[in-house]
TrEMBL record:
Organism in which the protein naturally occurs: Rhizobium hainanense
Domain of life (superkingdom): Bacteria
Name recorded for this polypeptide: Uncharacterized protein
Length: 71
């Protein structure tokens, strides 16, 4: 299914969008395309190479715990 977009909900929690990006990049071995912070969630989009095949766009939704609940 190379070349098609894939959307996944992550099974791990992150502290913030920065750590979410680090986790997604280390898991997928891809290149960061974009990150969109949302309420208690980050949407991380990466491009994952597949050797000689067309790279795959992967979108991962990562929930994170907000340490500053008072804001």
């Amino acid at each position: 299914m190379a070349g098609q977009s894939q959307i996944a909900q992550s099974t791990y929690k992150a502290q913030d969008c920065s750590s979410a990006v680090d986790q997604v990049l280390s898991t997928t071995k891809g290149r960061l395309l974009s990150v969109k912070p949302r309420e208690n969630r980050c949407i991380v989009t990466v491009i994952v190479p597949h050797g000689e095949q067309r790279p795959e766009k992967v979108v991962v939704r990562v929930d994170y715990s907000n340490a500053d609940n008072g804001q």
